[in-house]
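quick one before i forget lol
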Amino acid sequence: MRPTSCMGWIAAVLTLLGLLLWQTAAGAQALRFQPQGARAVGQGNAFAAQADDPSAIQYNPAGLTQVEGIQSVLGTNLLGGSVKYKSPTGVDSRGDFNGSVNWPPPSNFYLSANLATVGLPLLSSVTAGIGLASPFGLNTRYPLDGPFRTAVTSAALPLLAIQPTIAYKINDQLSVGVSADIYTFASFLGEGHVEQKQVSAGTLGIPAGAPIELNGTGTGAGVTASMLYAPLRNEAGKPIVSIGLVYRSQAVLPLKGVLLVNGAKVADASTDLVLPQKFTGAVAIWPVRTSEREWKVELDVEYVGWSLNKHLDVRLSNGAAIPQPQQWKNVTVIAVGTEYKWLNPRWMPYWEIAARSGYTYTEDPVPDRTFNPGIISLPAHTLSLGVGFLCKGAGRFLGLIPCSGESALWPKGIGLDLAYQEWFYESRTVVGNLNPTVDGTYHAFVHLGTFSLRYLF
């Protein structure tokens, strides 16, 4: 290869690798997938002060002390919608989430056990648990002949969070909890790596129209610490006022990736994917909490520290580095939710029936200069509705399955929770982006249906 041709190819690798890694990480970090349990989803994700099922692992680990015996929750989210784009010259395009329903669907699993239940009576104040969730990233794709195909045609971040958790009940009013947050990739989630694709613009020695792909994997960890304080309780000992405080630390994932052009490896690269720290304060009040009915209202306010990721430096296998400023800002997420429950009603004995609703407002952390169509980075208003059914005692789930059994292997209760969310995004006009083909006006909408199965042992 001639020296000038070689230098041109190296320049192409440096430039495209820097651009690709910047876009992929921006897409990963600016999108946080909040729905992590159907009970919380039905209340607009306002659950940190209630946190009374195993999904407390995600929303407030200290809440595990309220979860009796051994319990598990298994849930999944079916998400669809689209992103509409119009360029400054009037060219239209439309993207989706890897099909009419995002695949693979973001799912979660939580398991908790009070240690007295597993043969450690002296540790009855301690509850342990494990969670598996998908708190970051969705698949997005755009037409291969779209107006910003040289910026992105598809992106995916199938990130898995593993959350071993322990909670301790200090007294009847106060509990604390802590969990490790281990973020990694798994082969059963999509391609098992972070991935972004685009089409060459025909510059820097790469043929026009050539497919370009960057993928990579890595593992990082953080920690969550929380408390749950219930200053007021009713005669049965149940909270009527509850306050939750949660801190989730920043986590850094060292990613090692490969740049492919026309399916062939061009270079190795690495970068650090930074997930933000988060502070949550929540208050729940039960205006009604009797043996027959319960009504809860909750407000959660969350502060997400996106500004900690000030830049994203790309490290190349030849020792060179490309600095990439991010310029994201910290944002606030506000959630309001309510739940009304009928306990063992005459019209449905042995059951608990719940109706839920909620609203969430999420600010946009990404400025025009670093906006990436591979994510939905727009201010969002989310409306939520949900229902829940928990069967105990002599009841029968779906009219066929006994809800309780004498065997230790058979649950003492079976629950089904369903929720629906509609995400209404404010339109946004992007001007002055680092990639001019991205400039334009964006509209998006998302609808999400989720369900969880709950088992009480």
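fyi Residues 3-30 form the longest helix (28 residues).
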